[in-house]
Amino acid sequence: MENRLKTGISNVTTLMEFVLLGFSDIPNLHWTLFGIFLVIYLTILMCNSIIILVTRIDSALQTPMYFFLGNLSFLEICYVTVTIPRMLMDLLTQKGSISFFACAAQMCFVLMFGGSECLLLTVMAYDRYVAICNPLHYPLIMNHKVCVQLVTVSWISGVPVVIGQTCQIFSLPFCGPNTINHFFCDLPPVLKLACGDTFVNEIAVYVVAVIFVMVPFLLIVVSYGKIISSILKLSSAKGRAKAFSTCSSHLIVVVLFYGTATITYLQPKPNQSEGVGKLISLFYTVLIPTLNPIIYTLRNKDIMVALRKLLTKILI
């Protein structure tokens, strides 16, 4: 199963492919897991596609908040498509071999979409901050041009950083075991397989994680601190309830996503358990994208009304 290239000059063996162990430790459940993850993947595609559709065609949802939500839904589709189809194929064939280049590409896209989600969630928090704390100037501040610029920055600002980091990691020598105890090429388990001193690379990972995880998270905390302070000043109980309801869905998603991302990328390397790491990764790559559309639809009256209108049009 191992594919290696041996150079005669330095007598160093370089890996040409990796083997993703995935869920090979529970072989009796392969077909059950395949069925579960297939249903989850189709559910994510369907639910997020519906959100994109209703936010595009319903006139009542042509606001910055739903523009950002539509982008988040599209981002979730991209994010899960990088990992789940590959995982389904490995469960189906019971072979986890992945080429060196494919592993690098998968890691690059996972980090790219993950970083974009961190930034987009921050943008969504800023949108709620302006809407609640500065409502009179909201249409002027969050005009369509500004919204497009914020989304564009969220999508592309992390691309050069992620490409650079991926190239840096995969330029390391991989001369030991080629088995990755994971279901996709995530950064921590791949870095563990590198030969020699990886201290500089680990520092680079922490620096990037702080920039793309901790800084946006702190900005979100500050935004929600100001939002909660403004909501508590409202005299109307109904107004407070409405303001909290528009923010609660986003806050739940932020806590779930940032919590798992922080544990994965900011935990010291020696303290990382492969089994726990795999479980946490399953949480933020599969479970959270499944919960996001449910959280945003069930807790959002405007989306539910738009869905009923769409169903009425389809059925009549």
TrEMBL record:
The family line of this record is:
Belongs to the G-protein coupled receptor 1 family.
| The protein's name in its UniProt record | Olfactory receptor
Q: Which organism is it from?
A: Puma concolor
In what way does this protein cross or attach to the membrane?
Multi-pass membrane protein
The domain of life for this entry's organism is: Eukaryota
Primary residence: membrane
Localisation? Cell membrane
Q: Name one GO cellular component term.
A: plasma membrane
Relate the protein's function as given in its record. Answer: Putative odorant or sperm cell receptor.
Q: Which UniProt keywords apply?
A: Cell membrane, G-protein coupled receptor, Membrane, Olfaction, Receptor, Sensory transduction, Transducer, Transmembrane, Transmembrane helix
Q: What Gene3D superfamilies does UniProt report for this protein, alphabetically? A: Rhodopsin 7-helix transmembrane proteins
> Residues in domain G-protein coupled receptors family 1 profile?
47-296
Name the residues that span the membrane.
Answer: 31-54, 66-86, 98-126, 146-163, 203-222, 243-267, 279-298
A Gene Ontology molecular function term for this protein is: olfactory receptor activity
